[in-house]
Structures are given as structure tokens and as C-alpha cells.
Amino acid sequence: MRRLATGVLTGLVALSVLTACAEEPGDTTQGKSSTGKAATGKVAFLMPDLASTRYEQYDAPLFKKRMGELCSGCKVIYQNANSNASLQQQQANSAMAQGAKVIVLDPVDSTAAATIVQTAQSQGVKVVAYDRPIPKKPADFYVSFDNEAIGTAIGQSLVDHLKATKAKGGLLEVNGSPTDAAAALIKKGIHKAVDDSGFDLLAEYDTPDWAPEKAQQWVSGQIAQYKGRIAGVVAANDGTGGGAIAAFKAADVKVPPVTGNDAELAAVQRIVAGDQYNTISKPIKTVAEAAANVAYELLQGKKPKAGTTLFDTPSQLFEPTVVTQENLKKVIFGADGALKAKDVCTPEYAAACRRLGIQ
Fold first, then answer.
1. Is the pTM of this model over 0.90?
2. Please, how many CA atoms are within 13 Å of residue 19, restricted to the half-sphere of its CB?
3. Rounded CA separation 332/339 (Å)
């Protein structure tokens, strides 16, 4: 946990640097270019799917808000590809046809997205890879969380819990989409935590399109195959974790500790109820605003400051926090929390909220 806390601080410091670059008088003045002329332009914000509710609820609104603060004359073209790589390609082409000079892209398929980058850059359009990297063709910048660290964090948190409770049995690993390079990084991180944990890895699965229903179907088969032997499930995000939990409930089997990632509303409610063990609190406001800062600098022809390089792409990576019942109140409902108690503590969860001191 010490390493994660340090990463958060580092990310926030880096964000302040980016923000300073975007707003410092005489450098990147709000709403004006370095030449003093009013800044205008179109920026596309292309998200990958609807399976994760975060994009519609948080990423898009926060990105739009920050762009509006930075550049009142700029327009954001927002599209969601609903897990369709071909549709995302069409959306990117449409955005460029509408005059977008910067594309912030969270790819459905990290390999296929290389074509979008190639096409955009050939037309002088800058590309910011967002959340998920694009390994085959370097974008102009990459803004994300440290996905490998996320995998290690959720996996290690689960392993530590299982050891503390003297659990017996093995693990199931429910990974993300095989076409998502970020999912591959999360998977790598999970293996760092579980491979030498002392718990056997019974089976693992790469979930197409991150679809919760496909995760549920696979876990249902494993419950039948490894009856009574599953000590825990390392799921790469809240959707797949929710699918795993649904599988155990449908089989009328006690739900073992299950991980998640994204701190979606439903996942937080499951943690409150005790159905899900952990999730990852991603300060999406941090990365959405950082991406807007970067997009604005690129729009002005400036070179954003990077903290590191990943896949030959200048990058800014933020490291978020593991959330369990123990720190949920502070992290989720603290000053920087994205959720409100009234949204989580609906009548079904009111009693569990009170037990955790959430009002």
C-alpha cells in the first residue's frame, strides 16, 4: 500500500505540472494560444464501450468540462464505439472530416487502433491514447493509470486477505478483453501477485469485450468443475467481477472474495454489502482533466510534459488506490470521492451503509 500511496502523490504532482503548463500566463494562457490569438478548434473524445459505465458517467463529462474551462472556443466531439472496432474507426474518420485537430482515443482494439493513429497523423491530426495504450503505432501522447500496478494491487490485496483468513483452495482469474493492451498489462500485474502466492491458479479466462455476461458464463462452468475448491476470484474490472459474483449466486454457492477495478456504483454497493472484496478507485477526474490539458497543448502546437515513456509514447501514468470495506468511506466518500452516499445507500443497502458508518 505504501507504493500505491506514493504513486497517487506522484500522479497528482504530475497533474499539477500539466495544469500549470496549460494555464500559466505567457505560456499557455486560458483560452488563448501562445501567439495571443483566441484559441479555437475541435477535439474528438472517442471512448470504447458501454459495458463499463464510467465512460458515460465520468470520463466524457469531466473531459468536456475541463476543455470548456481551458478553451471556450473549442468544441468536443464525443462518440462511444460500443465495443465495435470498425465503428470506432468510422467515428475517428468522421471526427477528422468535421475538422478535429486532436483525437483523444480509448481504443476498442489496441492493435486495430494503430490504423486510426496512422491515418490521423498522416493528416496532421494529433492522437492522445487514453486509458488504453496503442502499442503498434506510437500516439503523440498517452494518459492513463498504471495498469500493471492495478493488476498487482488487486491481486495482492486478495492474496493477503485470503492468507489472513486462512482460506483454502485455489484462484480463478478473470482477465479483460484480449484485444485491449491495457487488459494485458493488468493481467501481467495480476500474475505478479498470484503466481507465487501459494494459492493454485485453477483456471483463467480472457473476457471478450470485457462483457460481464461472458465472465459470468465462464465462471459458472468453473464453479461446476472446481466445486468447493475456489478460494477467490481475481477479476480485472468491476464488470467481470460482477459477472463472477452473479455466477456464484446463480449456483447458490457462497460467494468467495472477488476483486474489481473502476469503483463503479454497483461495485461499491457490492462492497458495502460484502459481495465484492475490493475494487480500484480511479480518480477519473485526474486523468480526464490531464487528457484535456494535453489535448489543449497539442491543439496549440505545444509539446506536453511527460513523466515516462511507454510503447515509445511519451506518457503520464497515475497510480490509484485499492478500496475495501476498511477504507471505502474515506476513499469513495471523502473530499475527492466521485460518489455520494445517497447514491450508494439506497434502501437495499442502507443498513449495510450504517454498519460501515456511511451516512
1. no
2. 13
3. 6
